[in-house]
Design goal:
The protein has 16 helices and 14 strands. It is of the alpha/beta class. The longest helix is centred in the C-terminal third of the chain and has 26 residues, at 322-347.
Length: 400
């Protein structure tokens, strides 16, 4: 199934295959109205083309609402990411060869996503014989983990902090439940705890670990390094519950991180959190977003809350370090969260609706205009980040 285009896109849905390796993949270019496109690459055996297209649209919205000259795209490969590393590399290189025209011209840049690591992305670029413009920021070790285990999760907590400021609440002492304990979940847990929050629940493929008194996040991070998803079993204390119970826990903050549309209108009735900030992409359906709003639960739109990876990718391409990525996330995500929630209150519409309208307006306004090349976009983003480093957008989050 292909996605039916609307007034924004997708502009292209490219299906590729390679008989020698068995590679089957897809690239969805949603919109290049704002500039050359970027997005992650997802590897799963049960990937749906419409899922890839929906994720590409989320990337369009993400770059648009951030105010960055970048379009949205997403790639997908039908395969088991746990295959033998040598075979996985062959598949990734074949995928890169098939998309070489897009990657060599920098019309599209791909990054990591579910089932695809930063190292895997290098294999895609190697197959395409294209320059990978990243400098390795996501792979640099920081406090015992690759920086990727900080970046997006840090941005989620920046959104939570700003939302709590709007709500007149303090993150210090608040209870948090997090779905997933990979790169995003681990980062969210770590940085929530550092702001004084009590992370009471973590779920992985191995189940749900719950302790209303709070979990020892540093201990869980070490266990994750040792045994992966089985860290919730190896922890030894706390309650073990089915992972499906996570959404219904009585917490202040819920950080969902599952596959697209995991929380629909039927599941919303179980949510007991005061605030939802998605670590995953399009984890809530539009109907669920509206249902949360009607219930008085604030939901930070996913393409705002989890935009840290997109921001840090540009910090990486500009040769920046992790502290600079944190500053850019505080500035951009913090400001956007404040603005979206305040406009939501003024208009009495959901934050999701506010954010989508803002993003779509920017994309549609750009149609027919001259769009920047990759080098021009790079220069423009360097200027934006330089202004942010000067304090142009930081005071709003500093209050939070």
């Amino acid at each position: 199934m292909m996605k039916t285009p609307d007034e924004i896109g997708p502009e292209a849905q490219v299906f590729v295959s390679d008989a020698a390796t068995g590679m089957r993949g897809v690239l969805v270019v949603d919109s290049s109205a704002l500039g050359p496109c970027g997005g992650g690459t997802r590897m799963l055996p049960d990937l749906a083309p419409t899922e890839v297209a929906d994720l590409a649209r989320a990337m369009t919205y993400k770059f648009a609402i951030l105010g960055l000259p970048r379009g949205g795209a997403k790639a997908g490969i039908w395969a088991d990411p746990q295959m033998h590393p040598d075979r996985k590399r062959e598949v990734l290189e074949a995928f890169g060869r098939a998309l070489s025209t897009y990657l060599q011209t920098k019309e599209v840049a791909v990054g990591p996503d579910m089932g695809v690591t930063v190292g895997d992305v290098s294999a895609i670029y190697s197959g395409a014989r294209a320059e990978n413009v990243r400098t390795g920021l996501f792979e640099r070790t920081f406090e015992g983990d690759a920086a990727a285990y900080h970046i997006t999760g840090y941005g989620v907590i920046a959104a939570v902090r700003a939302a709590f400021y709007c709500m007149g609440l303090e993150l210090d002492g608040a209870t948090v439940a997090i779905e997933g304990f990979g790169q995003v979940g681990a980062g969210a847990a770590r940085h929530a705890a550092r702001h004084g929050a009590r992370v009471v629940a973590i779920s992985t493929l191995d189940g749900l670990l719950y302790d209303p008194h709070g979990l020892d996040i540093e201990r869980l991070l070490q266990l994750r390094r040792e045994v992966g998803d089985r860290c919730v079993s190896a922890y030894g204390t706390g309650e073990r519950r089915p992972a499906s119970e996570l959404y219904a826990l009585p917490v202040d903050v819920l950080v969902p991180g599952a596959r697209p549309n995991a929380i629909d209108e039927a599941a919303v009735g179980r949510v007991r959190a005061r605030l939802v900030a998605s670590g995953g992409n399009i984890t809530l359906t539009p109907g669920a977003e509206e249902a949360l709003f009607r219930r008085g639960i604030i939901s930070v739109p996913d393409f705002v809350a989890n935009s840290g990876g997109a921001i840090a990718s540009w910090v990486d391409m500009l040769g920046g370090d992790l502290p600079r990525a944190f500053r850019m996330m505080d500035a951009l995500i913090g400001r956007l969260t404040l603005e979206v929630i305040e406009e939501s209150r003024q208009r009495n519409v959901s934050p999701y609706r506010v954010a989508v309208e803002r993003a779509r307006r920017r994309v549609l306004d750009a149609r027919g205009c001259s769009r920047p090349s990759f080098q021009q976009a790079r220069e423009q983003i360097a200027g934006i980040f330089a202004r942010l480093d000067g304090g142009g957008a930081q005071p709003a989050l500093a209050q939070a």
